[in-house]
Amino acid sequence: MTTLLLALAAGAIVGLALGGLGGGGSMLAVPALVYLLGFSPATATTASLVIVAATSLTGLFAHARAGRVRWRTGALFAAAGLPAAAAAGALSAHLPGGLLTGAFAVLAALAAWRMLVPPKAAAEERSAAGTGRSTAAGAGLGAVTGLLGVGGGFLAVPALVSVLAFTMAEAVGTSLLVITANSLAALLPRLGATGAIDWAVAAPFTGAAILGAWDGKRLADKLSGRTLRKSFAIALLAVAALMLVTALG
User: Fewest C-beta in 10 Å: which of 33, 150, 202, 225?
Assistant: First the structure.
């Protein structure tokens, strides 16, 4: 019963972040699966991709109904990351757990920093969006997704704002399209390559995350993202410190 409650609580938090911020919650999914629910790092990253893909797809529908998704540009951005996501997903199954944990800790710290120092609004930063920069950003995002099992929304949102001149609302909605595509591409080469996922834990985690994504979208309608970003940034810094100590221990 305790494990089920932990899975539901962690899933709800992940969903809130993905639905409200377009990213960030997936950075909490892997540590929750490892430290709260007893998954190995490799299995946790695979389960995280399932959770992130399902939750992002739910959030995508919610934001699409509000007209916040730029489908064509988002699809092109996502397409650039699919080969990198698949290749990195296959590679990650052969890397030691300590290396994945350490890399994840560094990425979590980076995510926290990006949340504490959000990108400028698109109206203030309308730099030309070259095809090369867009492709490179999409490929880099795909590689991160495949290797570490995270959606990469904390990287996608700033990239969509600064590279492609999206508004913040459009970036949050469109990032969920990118995250869904990358997560599915990264998941396919992992299937069967890592240990079996404990669906008795992963399924309620995913269900709670899906419900949380709808709540996160409603919060995004009512509240400024500043308070939410700061709260998740603090949580991510704590997670990064814990995982770094574990990796070095």
Answer: 225
